[in-house]
Design a protein that fits this description.
The protein contains ten helices and twelve strands. By secondary structure, the protein is α+β, with helices and mostly antiparallel strands. The chain has two domains: 222 residues, no CATH class; 137 residues.
């Protein structure tokens, strides 16, 4: 385990009561990439790699079966290495809806100020993302046969600040009663005390099931105080929610690109004429229909990846995380764009039908004219 890393400057005292010493802790940097429409996990397992099934391992709380993966992702632990002068344990996880999560874990024990400094160092490190991207490129080579419609990767990062035990021993209530400012500054990566309003916002999404556990979720980082088993369950749900976020961002970017292309078509003012116009209109209609089907299918696959029934603790935790990450807002934005494309599709369909009718009318007229000419020629003989 990595020993304490102290900042160069003198740390700021956030409370009159000194912050507790972290006996066992970890910092996890997640880099989550969307790389393809889907990943065939069965084919990937058949390739003989070192990936294993990563079903959710939930702690024994009430109704734990209320939340589970429909298709469990595959994960692989990579050999420990060193980056930015620190020992790191990499792990890769692949989801069937086309995302890859790379987690870089750093062990820690020492003072609270050293923990906060290390968290800021990792968040600001460009080498960390570059290292994760190198791991991604290696993964793409190994999994290429299992990828469906591979595309340029889009990335989302997230940090989890995990503490398994303090010295002296603390409860979740004691942490919240005596160290709110420290927790808020830790999540916000600030070196000093933030305003009460900002601290309240940073700490507003929190969950605790036992006196010895606490999870606080912010939009780009989370603080998890729990034993290893409990922390792993919370972090798996955090990771999954971030894979959904990167999926929604991918859909949104794709819809933006398609809408730009549609507007360039200028469908509202173009009127197809003749055979070429009919074919062009039909091609555009087919593209719009395929786009709507693709986005709906991929969105359903992502949304249904985690089965949540009832109101179990972990189900409530997931809903809180989804709210903090703004997943519903992203989904509504995508639905709005899908509705716009749906309207354009209906208009394009009408134009295609009109173009088809015109084309058939022309064919009928041509046939009638040909028949009349043949009749006239026959009479003339």
């Amino acid at each position: 385990m990595k020993s304490e890393i102290l900042p160069n400057q003198t740390s700021v005292a956030f409370n009159e009561m000194p912050a507790p010493k972290i006996e066992v802790g970890s910092l996890h940097a997640y880099f989550i990439y969307d790389i393809a429409d889907t990943i065939d996990l069965l084919k990937l397992k058949g390739l003989g790699g070192k990936f294993r099934q990563a079903q959710l391992q939930l702690r024994a709380v009430s109704s734990p079966s209320h939340i589970q993966f429909a298709v469990p992702p595959l994960s692989a632990e990579l050999p420990a290495t060193e980056i930015i002068g620190l020992q790191v344990q990499p792990r890769i996880k692949l989801y069937d809806y086309g995302t890859v999560s790379i987690r870089l874990s750093f062990g820690y024990n020492g003072s609270w100020s050293g923990f906060a400094h290390l968290a800021r160092q990792l968040k600001q490190s460009e080498e960390l993302q570059a290292f994760s991207y190198q791991l991604l490129k290696q993964t793409l080579v190994q999994t290429k046969e299992a990828l469906n419609k591979e595309h340029d990767p889009l990335v989302e990062d997230y940090f989890v600040l995990e503490v398994e035990s303090f010295q002296p021993v603390l409860t979740a209530n004691t942490l919240m009663a005596n160290y709110k400012d420290d927790l808020a500054s830790l999540l916000l990566s600030e070196t000093g005390t933030v305003t009460p309003l900002e601290a309240q916002d940073a700490l507003k999404v929190m969950f605790s099931f036992l006196p010895t556990d606490l999870a606080i979720v912010h939009w780009d980082a989370a603080f998890v105080f729990d034993n290893r088993e409990g922390a792993e369950a919370v972090e798996s749900i955090l990771e999954f929610a971030n894979t959904q976020l990167i999926e929604l961002r991918t859909y949104d970017a794709r819809l933006d690109a398609e809408l730009d292309r549609i507007y360039r078509w200028n469908i509202a003012r173009e009127k197809p004429h003749g055979l070429l116009g009919y074919r062009a209109s039909e091609d555009r209609t087919d593209q719009l229909r395929n786009l709507l089907i693709d986005i709906r299918e991929l969105s359903d696959r992502s949304n249904n990846a985690l089965k949540i029934i009832g109101d179990a603790f972990y189900a409530r935790l997931y809903r809180g995380i989804a709210l903090r990450l703004g997943l519903n807002d992203w989904q509504q934005q995508i639905e709005s764009k899908l509705d716009s494309i749906g309207e354009i599709y209906r208009f394009a369909t009408d134009q295609t039908q009109h173009a088809r009718s015109q084309f058939l009318e022309i064919i009928i007229i041509v046939l009638i004219v040909v028949e009349i000419i043949i009749g006239i020629v026959h009479i003339g003989r």
